Amino acid sequence: MTSVLHKTNLESSSSSCEVNVPARMMGSNKSVLGLVVVVVTLVVTLVVTLVVVEPETGHFTTTVTNNSRHRRWSEHPHARLTTPELIRGRGYPAEVHQVVTRDGYVLELHRIPHGRAAPSVPPNTHADGEWWAPHTVYNVSSNTPLGRLSTGERRVVFLLHGILLSSADYVMNDPDQALGFILADAGYDVWLGNNRGNFYSRRHVRLSPEQLEFWDYSWNEMALYDMPAMLSYILKVSGVSQLSFVGHSMGNALLFAMFNYHPQLISRVKVVAAIAPATYIHHKHGPISLLAPFINDIESELRKQGIVEMFRLTADRAELSTVLCGPKSITNFICLFLHFIIAGENSSFLDREYLPVIFAHTPAGTGLRVFVHLLQIYTARRFQAFDYGEAENLVQYGTTSPPAFPLSRVNVPVGLIYSDNDWIVDKKDVQQTASELPWVALYYRVPLREFNHLDFMWAENARDLVYRPLVKFLLEFQ
Hints:
Blueprint: E1 3-7, H1 30-50, H2 83-89, E2 95-100, E3 105-112, E4 136-138, E5 145-148, E6 155-160, H3 179-185, E7 188-192, E8 203-204, H4 219-238, E9 243-248, H5 250-261, E10 269-275, H6 287-291, H7 295-304, E11 309-310, H8 317-325, H9 332-343, H10 355-361, E12 366-367, H11 368-380, H12 390-397, E13 414-418, H13 427-436, E14 440-445, H14 455-458, H15 462-475
Parallel strand pairs: 1-2, 6-7, 6-9, 9-10, 10-13, 13-14
Antiparallel strand pairs: 2-3, 3-7, 3-8, 4-5, 11-12
Helix pairs in contact: 4-5, 8-10
């Protein structure tokens, strides 16, 4: 495993728990409040069942012994693997890199430098700053050439996950079905990011996660510090001047917000494939719409109880997810229902035998304010910075209201990919995003009504419905 610690210089400034509903909420519409209580109860149930034990170990240790996903063992062999171990277990090279943001958070990046067919020059051999030798790359599913790299040219792609997720999202499937592997076999140097606060980026050079100050951040800081730190580091190590970007949900929003803080980085991104972009999310009346009106009360109550970290992922999750989510478990319906609450109507495209593995890696943890910021964007009906309240907004922004993140500044070719059955990002939200972007190079609706928000990551038919057109789109801008 290659591990690199690097301090990035930015190019510009800048357990169990119980939630009690406050008495002042009782004057609200009772039917709506009842639904909110149900949703909150489900959320708390997930915390209690999946995050009760918090062992000191920071990483899983089991290694892969078989590449097959379809096992009948009591615990799936992939359940305890880290992202790099999942990658190596499929026969791909994996590297671990660490970058320190300007405000001190240690972010972990996972790299698949090439596909299963290794380049003729070893990855650590540098010639004129480049090591990728020319060779033909084949799509593992069709065995047809996807492109040839010319001497000195490299295709680099940066993949970023959504809220409560991690780098594992892009490799939790077979090699011909997981986007990270498909891109590696298509000739890309693949980099998988991890936002601060999740399982892989839960560190700081000075602060401890046990301190409240560690969790004092929102999308603002992730866009201001995390995104440019990861992007600049990838460009430097890869030795290229531009990269392609693929984001899911909040991952896209962070990139777009970053361009407002660091407009000089626009020229470093060649093309963006935005899967279910969570810039506008107010058109869908799902679980978010039930929680959003009460977010201030919920945040206040959670802070009173000292809860500022949400859905922490710990090493014991694999055992718990196997017991709860296993295909033969009598509680399997709970996991299916939670998946339904988060993503939308369950489709038949998710391998249910793999469900324990998914819940062993997801949710991967985040800070309370990150979740609050999501609900603020829903309530405000605009893509904006974090709302501290009028008094603190004056201190932070010089205005009583938080500023918007104008999409008009995202002057790069963007491909928008969405689905009808997404409970987070409605097609009307995508339409609004498209109307404000200067350059929409692809506007693609998944041609299957049942496809939901998390099917983009783990559905067995995502390869044909999403990844093929996505890779074709990226290659058009190489």
